[in-house]
Amino acid sequence: MANAQYKALIGFLACSGMRIGEVLSRKWSDVEVRPDGYARVTLRAGETKARKPRYAFLTRETVLWLRTFTIWLGVKSEWVFPGENETKALQYGTALEQIKRLFDRNGMKDNGPEIFTPHSFRTFADAQMRKAGLDSKYVSAIIGHVNKLQSEASYLDWTEIEKEWVAKCEQKLTWLADSTLLNRLSEEKNKTANLESLLSMALSPAQIEKLKEFIAGEIKR
Fold first, then answer.
1. What contacts 210, CB < 8 A, 6 or more positions away?
2. Within a 10 A sphere around the Cβ of 20, how many other Cβ atoms?
3. What's the CATH architecture for 4-220?
């Protein structure tokens, strides 16, 4: 069973489409929770592969998982995902090892044609935002596709992108109903008061379904 930390990390990756290095290097100061409960995540130019600033977004559900995780963790840190030493971020190798274990436990083993890594969630988020009807230009901006972002960064209207993401993607990237989610949050409080060659191409419908089942299974445990 994934603990609160990895539920939050999986949710963050699958919702935002950010690279795992970008997620692990986020500080709470980068996460702005909007009045409606979803969040906007800031990535500065020097922190992105395209060397251009951008934003990613988190559903209300993912924000609640993050809050649940901080309660479960029981320590204060500037990092969203702190390591054993809360003054430093969780290390990539540690996160990679645990996520691979979760994949393996769910029968998603690397077999040549299919390779499952934390980056698989980036491709998954890309596909789900497009499926929800978000303009491909906006998806590329949020995901941080290097060529697109470098050529179009000066012309992006992030206010419009955020508005469209909320309207088309916020519910589509939500895995549990509000009542179920709030019950899970309450349970966590009571307890504390726990894809590289594949990624160069689009995920197949079968692989997307595998990821959906994996995410749903982990968050409902």
1. 108
2. 21
3. Orthogonal Bundle (1.10)
